[in-house]
Design brief:
By secondary structure, the chain is of the alpha+beta class. The protein has one domain. Helix content is 23%, strand content 19%. The chain has eleven helices and nine strands. Strands 1, 2, 3, 4, 5, 6, 7, 8 and 9 form a nine-stranded antiparallel beta sheet that branches. A hairpin with a 5-residue loop joins strand 7 and strand 8. The N and C termini lie far apart (43 Å). Belongs to the DyP-type peroxidase family. Pfam families: Dyp_perox_C, Dyp_perox_N.
């Protein structure tokens, strides 16, 4: 196996070329073999942050931080340090120049070391800023985008405040869970004394595909999820539905996107005792192939009239919400048991969009009101974040346009 250091003896130019090649390979009708995945590298610098339209990796470590410093300059400095570390980590290097074993033996290493010898595994790191960052601590209130309006309370949700919200989030996606955990651990280490971890979530088995070269994944209810998800190949729709534009009202967000997260616990034991017929009618799709009710294949055009009026697919369909689309890249999770013999399991929902007020909010309002799936699920956490545009080069950093 090639080590992380060996892979990137090629330098940044090699990293960019490898990343471009990886994206090009995604236009083929079959996914690359597993070994190709772990050697995969995505460019860190670009117009948009990686980890949004990037073909969804298999593992997630998501974290939300509270900022505990009240010094604006110190926060901006932290974002610069994080960006430098992220640029290294996503290219298969260690978090700091001296790594886990270099530098003075009398000082703490500037990398924790658990990813030594591991390949890059397609690691991406994506940052976002929550509504709470725009209070009076840092003089950012006037720069809060209108699209970052607090989400309304939806019927039936039972949110836990301790695992909701957050000033800053970081989404780490990779094909190796240790690589993703290593990245978040090192950002938390670098941020010590300036940020504290509010909550974090591990995820596995992506539940959505973000490229047509990927097979549609399944959620823990056994159904294919995100068949009609926005894909990186949908250039026109991405411009219209995903990326914030200069005229949207917050110039610093141009080229960025808005992230909504929801931790959705599934009562899998009850679901598992439900008949196959009812399961399929609830979703509006057949369980094996994933075909819409009344059709034969997964990607056959949906006939909404063929399914029950409250079928999940019908309630969430773009035609019911002014053609609103979401780019979803959620993950399954299992957090052990609840102490009563039931799995604490479900979906960590992740969706990117241009404006949650006209995309996520009306879709979720419809689902919360009428979706028969509500008998089997419970929303326990929620997050909303403004993810700024990509980092252009080594002189740029996450959020620079916000702090300018």
């Amino acid at each position: 196996m090639i080590s992380r250091r060996q892979v990137f003896g090629l330098g940044a130019a090699g990293a960019v070329a490898a990343g471009a090649g990886a994206l090009a390979a995604r236009t083929l009708p079959a996914e690359p073999p597993a070994q190709a995945h772990v050697e995969e590298v995505f460019p860190f610098y670009g117009e948009h942050q990686a980890g949004i339209v990037t073909p969804a990796q298999d593992r997630l470590h998501f974290v939300a931080f509270d900022v505990i410093t009240t010094d604006r300059a110190e926060l901006a400095e932290l974002l610069q340090e994080w960006t430098a570390a992220a640029a290294r980590l996503t290219q298969g290097k260690e978090a700091g120049a001296f790594g886990a074993t270099g530098g003075s033996r009398e000082a703490a290493p500037d990398d924790t070391g658990e990813a030594l010898g591991l390949p890059p595994s397609g690691l991406t790191l994506t940052v976002g800023f929550g509504p709470s960052l725009f209070d009076d601590r840092f003089g950012l209130a006037a720069k809060r985008p209108a699209a970052l309006a607090d989400l309304p309370k939806f019927p039936g949700e039972t949110l836990v405040p301790e695992i909701s919200g957050g000033d800053i989030c970081v989404q780490a996606c990779a094909h190796d869970p240790q690589v993703a955990v290593h990245a978040i651990r090192n950002l938390a280490r670098i941020g010590f004394g300036r940020v504290s971890v509010r909550y974090s979530q591990l995820g596995f088995g992506r539940t959505s595909s973000t490229s047509r070269a990927q097979a549609t994944a399944r959620n823990l209810m056994g159904f294919k999820d995100g068949t009609n998800n926005l894909k990186l190949e949908d250039a026109d729709l991405l411009r219209e539905q995903l990326w914030a534009a200069p005229g949207d009202g917050a110039a610093w967000m141009a080229g960025g996107s808005y992230l909504v997260t929801r931790k959705i616990r599934m009562t899998v034991e009850t679901w598992d005792r439900t008949s196959l017929r009812e399961q399929e009618e609830i979703f509006g799709r057949d369980k094996g192939e994933g075909a819409p009710i009344g059709k034969q294949k997964e990607f056959d055009p949906v006939d909404l009239s063929a399914m029950r009026p409250d079928a999940h697919v019908r309630l969430a369909h773009p035609s019911a919400h002014g053609n609103a689309h979401l780019l979803r890249r959620g993950y399954n999770y299992v957090d052990g048991s609840d102490g009563l013999g039931r799995l604490d399991a479900g979906l960590f929902f992740i969706a990117y969009q241009r404006d949650p007020r006209t995309q996520f909010v009306p879709i979720q309002a419809s689902l919360a009101k009428s979706d028969p799936l509500n008998e089997y699920i419970r929303h326990v956490s929620s997050g909303l974040f403004a993810c700024p545009p990509g980092v252009v080069d080594a002189g740029d950093y996450w959020g620079r346009t916000l702090f300018a």
